[in-house]
Write a structure and sequence with these properties.
mainly alpha, about 0% strand
């Protein structure tokens, strides 16, 4: 691994670490770039997850110090997410690289539309069902979120924020980011084992990317409540648009 790649991976990790905690979608940048660096799709997928785990653990420390983590609710959501992620990860390691790249490109376009139009914000939270109905719905929805996270991971933060907006009430955006961080960390700790066992982690790349992501995650948790998410997302939209086009013609 050349010094240029080491520096590039570290800067990439730093950048997406901040993005993932302050907004979401950092993997929509890091995953295609890892593929462009020459990693097979499944290996890029597994390698990227190591960095996300490190960055999220770092961010959890920051959120915990700020007393912004709702552990009980986060763990309740993590249980179905873990179940779904194991199924998704098994599917991911069996898919061809070409098919994965195509799916990833279309997913990136879908997430861009979600970021731009934000349809989940058009619904009022005061119409959300409560009690057992809400619990069952959250369980089923987060099992599907887990499947997607186990399969691709990229953009899962947007899905978590969107469904929390649609299906819960009285949760501030900054608190949603802390919940997202806990849920993502827990399901990744389980589903990433499948990538490791199948040999789909490049540990050299993962360590450098994780070092940058860990630092970025810590800074992201520190600034999550002070920087406009919308302005950050405009910048992300431009980058993801360019990467999705490049991926489709790769």
């Amino acid at each position: 691994m050349s010094i240029e790649i080491i520096i590039g991976l570290f800067i990439l990790g730093l950048f997406v670490g901040v993005i993932n905690i302050m907004s979401a979608g950092g993997s929509l940048i890091s995953l295609p770039i890892l593929i462009f660096f020459g990693l097979p799709s499944a290996t890029a997928n597994g390698t990227n997850r190591i960095a996300i785990i490190v960055q999220n653990i770092s961010a959890m420390v920051g959120f915990h110090r700020a007393k912004r983590i709702y552990w009980k609710f986060s763990i309740e959501l993590a249980i179905p997410t873990i179940i779904g992620s194991l199924v998704g990860a098994f599917y991911a390691v069996t898919l061809s690289g070409e098919m994965f790249n195509r799916i990833l490109a279309f997913v990136m376009v879908g997430v861009l539309l979600l970021m731009i139009f934000r349809p989940h914000e058009r619904f009022r939270r005061d119409k959300v069902k409560t009690g057992n109905q809400q619990s069952v719905l959250l369980f089923l929805v987060f099992m599907l979120v887990g499947f997607y996270g186990g399969f691709i991971q990229a953009g899962v933060g947007f899905l978590i924020i969107a469904f929390l907006t649609l299906l819960t009430r009285n949760i501030k955006l900054a608190d949603m980011h802390s919940i997202k961080t806990v849920v993502t960390t827990l399901y990744l700790l389980f589903s990433t084992v499948i990538f490791i066992v199948n040999g789909h982690v490049n540990w050299g790349y993962a360590i450098v990317l994780a070092a940058g992501s860990g630092i970025g995650g810590w800074f992201g948790s520190s600034f999550a409540m002070r920087i406009s998410e919308r302005k950050l997302q405009i910048f992300i939209i431009i980058i993801i648009s360019l990467l999705s086009i490049r991926l489709l013609i790769f």
